Amino acid sequence: MMKPYLKLLSFVKVNNSLSKLNEIFNQVNTLVKNFKVVNITISIKYKVNNIVIYLDQPELYQAFINSIKKLNPIPIIDGPNKAIKENSSTLKSRVNNSPILEYRVKILSGYSIVGRKTVEFGNKCTAGFWVRQQGLAYLTTAGHCAANGTLVPHESVRFYFIEPVTEKIKFFGNMTRFSIEPVDRGFILPSDGYSESPFIYSKGLKAPLFAIADFTRTPVSFAEGAILCRSGSVTGYSCGEVTSVKVKTVFFLIGYGKINYEDLTEVSKTRGEVGDSGSPVFSFSNPLNYGTGVNLFGMMVGGFQINNTILFLPLYKILNSDMNVITIQD
Prior knowledge:
This is Trypsin-like cysteine/serine peptidase domain-containing protein. It comes from Gigaspora rosea. This protein is 10% helix and 43% strand. It has helices at 18-34, 62-68, 82-87, 315-318; strands at 40-45, 50-55, 76-78, 91-94, 105-106, 112-116, 122-126, 129-133, 136-141, 157-162, 169-179, 185-190, 194-195, 199-202, 207-215, 227-232, 236-253, 257-268, 280-284, 294-304, 309-314, 323-325. Strands 7-6-10-11-12-9-8-22 form an eight-stranded antiparallel β-sheet. Strands 16-17-18-21-20-19 form a six-stranded antiparallel barrel.
């Protein structure tokens, strides 16, 4: 039945899927906002299987261009093109310093999040903290939260957050990179309409409780008995005492198998449950004044309910050299 139409069809092998192009499109749009670029048009061009950026005055935005060149695939940068602006089916444009008016929902550390391949199934976890890398903001959580979250190996995993109070489940971004071993970490790129926040949510108060004022990215030799706290989406906010560092252990994850961990820090007298993975772990910058904010040390990756103990992964294992935690100083 198809033979009369074969001459009308043209099949070309491409390197970038539509899903990948949409992902890069969203990254470019985020960079436009971060670098406050104006007189620019972003377009998905199927003929060249890439993102094409039309920039009127590229000499004014070298930092923006340098960040664009770090994306994969690298978008094509060109001068203004009226025909493209009028005909592109996927288009965003800023002209003459006109502001982009939009309402963005902030995703807080401590929120309940779910990585899913279908609406029915997913791993419930906790939003850890936000990082910035090459001009883009990512929400960090445990990488095992994305386990079994995709039907295709190495594909992005859709993530949802559970809205406090209403309990509504809403899509907010894709985990574009994650690993489970040797380092259990994942980075979620937010979609349009969602953005970063340096505040930590309290399940008990149903409100932001602490602000991330600083972070420690180098290895820390905690003294035994040092007080550290965390805020999980299941068990809420609590504090405990450091009992061991450089811990090695093995956990079993349904659908994945054994996970071998090392260089974890053990904190006792604080419990964690399924769904608390990713919880930010921190101490108070000034124990006598909570209003000064907290110092972030890492995120929870597991725990033992039987003896009220959690294990957390320190920041030096999580952050790349070009990553920084987003704090209230930003």
